């Protein structure tokens, strides 16, 4: 698939084997959970706010590893058109 190796399994208690996911989890903790701890007991409100944050994270927030582009902008510039772009909906 595109000449890249894809990660299928991690060893328990070995975060170094999955650094991208571990970094993403840390970002969610630091940028979202820490600032929304009052929602931890309300799953519906927490999930709604988390979806808003993830939309911001992917569509508006620049990422250092992507030369400060948003993930969506990077996808469009480097991967061409994707049907996945049409999955964002609001209810």
Walk me through what this model shows:
The protein is mainly alpha-helical. The protein has one domain (15-87). It has helices at 19-33, 43-59, 71-79. It is globular, with a radius of gyration of 16 Å. The model has no long low-confidence stretch (mean pLDDT 83).
Structural class of the secondary elements? mainly alpha
* Shape, per Cα inertia axes: globular
Please mark out the parts with pLDDT under 50 across 5 or more consecutive residues, or reply none: none
The sequence of SSEs as H and E is HHH
Head-to-tail CA distance between termini:
34 Å
Number of domains: 1
Radius of gyration: 16 Å
Tell me how many strands there are: 0
Kindly state the percentage of residues in helix: 40-55%
Indicate the multimeric state. Answer: single chain
Major sheet characteristics: none
Annotation field: number of helices: 3
Mean pLDDT across the residues is 83
- How much of the polypeptide forms β-strand, as a percent range? under 5%
Please describe the topology of this protein.
Blueprint: H1 19-33, H2 43-59, H3 71-79
What attributes characterize this protein structure?
globular, 91 residues, 3 helices, mainly alpha, single chain
Short description:
The protein has 91 residues and is mostly helical. Helices cover 45% and strands 0% of the residues.
């Amino acid at each position: 698939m595109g000449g890249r190796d894809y990660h299928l399994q991690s060893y328990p208690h070995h975060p170094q084997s999955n650094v991208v996911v571990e970094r993403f989890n840390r970002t969610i903790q630091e940028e979202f959970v820490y600032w929304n701890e009052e929602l931890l007991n309300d799953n519906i409100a927490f999930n709604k706010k988390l979806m808003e944050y993830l939309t911001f994270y992917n569509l508006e927030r620049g990422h250092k590893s992507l030369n400060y582009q948003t993930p969506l902008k990077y996808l469009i510039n480097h991967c061409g058109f994707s049907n996945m772009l049409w999955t964002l909906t609001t209810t």
